[in-house]
């Protein structure tokens, strides 16, 4: 499973209905299973981003489809980052000359 970090901001629609944000997050977590993705952690934050979400997905296609489905709902805009743990990073740098 690949790890992704999604940095999200509320859209106008999302902030108008902010009282529903935890319910929406639970529904999105459930929806992720259909894409082969699991939202393992979600944090509501202060600052430039309103949410930081950790996602485990079976591959890039699953992560992309999940992210696009979230965006299509219209409540948040996301910037998604591929993240590597220490073991994965050691494999990457091990391939360097």
Short descriptors:
single chain, 97 residues, alpha+beta, Alpha-Beta Plaits, four-stranded antiparallel β-sheet, 4 strands, elongated
Cα(first) to Cα(last) distance is 26 Å
What is the CATH-assigned architecture?
Answer: 2-Layer Sandwich
User: Shape, please?
Assistant: elongated
CATH third-tier fold name = Alpha-Beta Plaits
User: What is the CATH first-level class name?
Assistant: Alpha Beta
Q: How many beta-strand elements?
A: 4
Label the structural class. Answer: alpha+beta
Annotated CATH homologous superfamily: Lrp/AsnC effector binding domain/regulation of amino acid metabolism (RAM) domain
Strand order of the largest sheet: 2-3-1-4
Q: On the 0-100 scale, what is the average pLDDT?
A: 97
Domains, number: 1
Number of alpha- plus pi-helical segments: 4
Largest sheet: 4 strands, antiparallel
Strand composition percent: 25-35%
**Measured on Cα atoms, how large is the radius of gyration?**
15 Å
Unreliable stretches covering 5 or more consecutive residues: none
Q: What's the helix-strand series?
A: EHHEEHEH
Fraction of helical residues: 40-55%
Short structural description:
With 97 residues, the protein is α+β, with helices and mostly antiparallel strands. It is built from four helices and four strands; from the N terminus they run βααββαβα. It has one domain (2-91): 2-Layer Sandwich (Alpha-Beta Plaits), CATH 3.30.70.920.
Structural description of this entry:
- By secondary structure, the chain is an alpha+beta fold.
- The protein has one domain: Lrp/AsnC effector binding domain/regulation of amino acid metabolism (RAM) domain (Alpha-Beta Plaits, 2-Layer Sandwich), CATH 3.30.70.920.
- 44% of the residues lie in helices and 33% in strands.
- The protein is built from four helices and four strands, in the order E-H-H-E-E-H-E-H.
- The chain has helices at residues 12-16, 21-35, 60-73, 86-94, and strands at residues 2-10, 37-44, 51-57, 76-83.
- Strands 2-3-1-4 form a four-stranded antiparallel beta sheet.
- The longest helix has 15 residues, at 21-35.
- The two termini are 26 Å apart.
